Amino acid sequence: MASFKVLIAIVLLVEISWAKPNGNKVDIKIPKECDKDGFCSIKPEGYDALEEQINSLLSPHLISAFSDRIGGGPTAELSPESDWHNCPYVRKLDSSYTFLYENLTKTDLIIQTKLLSQTIESISCAEEKIASDGQQCFQHLGLGAFNMKSTCKTSTAKRTLLAFDVDAGKLIQKDFDIPCCCTCSITRT
């Protein structure tokens, strides 16, 4: 009798884990401002209707694992001017709703709901503050005399975010390349 109860419990667990939403597909319209590759913080039309479906799929474990780890609202700050001899950078905190790939064919929906906010911290080169001559960083070292050139480049790191697969109607964990720092690269000329 006890093994029968265990069998029933396992069957119920499998059914719950394979459960799918009711099939109501929500029409999402991506804003024109989000037609460039990368992250976009403008909420798409139809996202509010999708939020209820997303919230029904969120477990307490997912909420605690992916919840806002950084805190605060959208911000952007420039690195201190005293550090500009290296590569000046911009640090941004933002909540993005979509990610468009470079080939501009597929857009991922990033989960941003009242239950789960995923703030993305990015650090990229402050292009407008970088010298345009052959020495973009560490100019005081006089690298040009040694036939060397320095350039500032934005590097990326992978971060796993929770996204919504519209076709399958389920939540997925997906790795995204997020700008994480502005580095000085030195090459021979």
UniProtKB/TrEMBL annotation:
Domain of life of the source: Eukaryota
UniProt cross-references to InterPro entries, sorted A to Z: Cystine-knot_cytokine (IPR029034), Spaetzle (IPR032104)
Keywords in alphabetical order:
Signal
Extent of the signal sequence: 1-19
The reply to whether Isomerase figures as a keyword in the UniProt entry is: no
Record-linked Pfam families: Spaetzle
Q: Where would I find the Spaetzle domain in this sequence?
A: 105-186
Name assigned to this protein: Spaetzle domain-containing protein
- Origin organism of this chain? Chrysodeixis includens
Starting at the broadest rank, the lineage of the source organism is:
Eukaryota, Metazoa, Ecdysozoa, Arthropoda, Hexapoda
